[in-house]
Amino acid sequence: MEDTVLVVNCGSSSLKLALFDGAYQKLASALAERLNQNDAFARIDGIQETLPLNPAASHHEALETLIRAFRDHKLLTSLPAAIGHRVVHGGETFREAVLIDNGVISAIEDCAGLAPLHNPVNLSGIRATLALFPEVPQTAVFDTAFHQTLPKRAFLYALPDAWYRDWGVRRYGFHGTSHGFMAIEAARLLGKTPATTSIISAHLGNGCSITAIRDGISMDTSMGLTPLEGLVMGTRSGDVDPGLVDFLASKGIAAREVHRVLNQESGLLGLSGQTNDMRSLCELADHGHEPSQTAIEVFCFRLARYIGAMMASLRDLDALVFTGGIGENSARVRRDTLDHLRLMGFELSEDLNRHHGEISDGRIESAGSRFPVLVIPTNEELVIAREASRLAGETGQD
User: Fold this and answer.
1) What is the average pLDDT value for the chain, to the nearest integer?
2) Which residues are catalytic?
3) Which single residue of 15, 31, 312, 347 could bond 369 by disulfide (Cβ 3.0 to 4.6 Å)?
């Protein structure tokens, strides 16, 4: 257990932990939800018990409870060798993972204005873990870092330049850990190196984004200043006309309420009026629920449009890659999306699409497809664990 790595992922009301051994095999994972609410709870995967949490438990309390449970169940018998934290927004400050010190904490705080729902809770997890393990090297891995290679033509908005210079208003992109992992895994499956591989990576879950990766480098991506821009998502609208804010203001709806609805009550949930879960939507659509069918159609068409748009940043395309909960599990979404892209030469094999991973190594295109199409499970926790271990090792060599 001496080489274990702990991965910490704090959400606004949740805390996820994963424990890896020195060979990066996952030993355990745990989850606390509804934090800062009266019905907060925690559990360790594979252990049939709910861990008691105080009402309105904080991230710090939840972390202490889960670490204690790891120790009680002999999952963590010594100090971890390294700890890695997911941090949503690194602005233009962070282009890669970094060891955490007071300066890094201060810089993450400075980026909080760009991610007010995320960076403060990420910091709460960092502070809690530093208090529990002050002697263990800890690393911050940023969702935005992979996209710091975007050229200006891709990251600048057509807005007054002072807004970018003074306030940092630009496209930052998110899900970078997942998209970076796709660049490496796709290259491996294609028998190439990441530096010679160009893909379009579609990360589809409750949050969705798509990235054009040329020779292993992010060149364009759909999420922007915040994770709200781009594709239709579970509860987020994705792209809308900015004039919508003024229009709704004329109806008496304040900007704060518009922001809440666009983030929490839109997307698949808003269109269907029922759910943000793609599996449930497909079941409802199969039983004749028209709004659910419409939600699926809008989701797939908008995704297809973005796939086409990402072509502009590539010189060639080695593969289109689907990942994330929807991307990995919904054969219907993959099929319906690529039906819109026949003009570009995409063709799926019905059998491979339905049974990927069973009868192929993730490839689902037909023999006549112009481009390979891959389904690759994402593993952001593994990326964070590797980065934390690497930087801790470099520290040990100093």
Assistant:
1) 94
2) 143
3) 347
